[in-house]
Amino acid sequence: MKVETRDIGSIRPYENNPRHNAEAVDAVAKSIQQFGWRQPIVVDATGVIVIGHTRLLAAKQLGLTTVPVHVAEGLSEAQVKALRIADNATGDIATWNYDLLPLELKDLQTMDFDVSTLGFDEDELAKLLAPEGTEGMTDPDAVPEPPAEPITQPGDLWLLGAYTTCPHCGERGEM
Questions:
Q1: How much of the chain exceeds pLDDT 90, in percent?
Q2: Are 104 and 51 contained in the same domain?
Q3: Is residue 55, in this structure, part of any structural domain at all?
Q4: Model-level pTM?
Q5: In a domain, 53, yes or no
Q6: 3 state DSSP class of 7
Q7: Where in the sequence is the domain holding 42, given as residue range(s)?
Q8: How far out from the chain centre does Cα 9 lie?
Q9: Is 61 in the same domain as 102?
Q10: Tell me, what's the pLDDT at 175?
Q11: Are 30 and 57 in the same domain?
Q12: Which of 24, 62, 90, 148 shows the greatest Cβ crowding within 10 Å of its Cβ?
């Protein structure tokens, strides 16, 4: 894949772009600042954007004058239209693994990485980083020390659901 640097003014948005991208511009601008350009803007032979409308808006917001560009050569008009849609639609199909995502975010925090630059809003991050229970967070063989003053006393009866078992109650006693 050939990538070239072009003047930002030589790239034109596709006038019938069906994707609304204004909400993502700030996040993409932060990403470009944090990581640099890792994906070029893809244009057709005339300089019209096929993929990368949000990247162009982010570059303009950042005051950049040049951007990396890949020219999608050898595609029919129908293929260009289809690629423009497929690039966005396929991203919508992917989902997060919510067992692993919080772990990755927490790892980044321990590395002093600012996770607010990743594109999640504050509420999403708070929910993802909030501890939910302790399953898997301790050694399964670890046994806590008993308290100095035990809660349970001789003669106490503990209810477990609707039934209880008790050596003095016979086989099974209902409460």
A1: 54
A2: no
A3: yes
A4: 0.68
A5: yes
A6: strand
A7: 4-94
A8: 32
A9: no
A10: 47
A11: yes
A12: 24
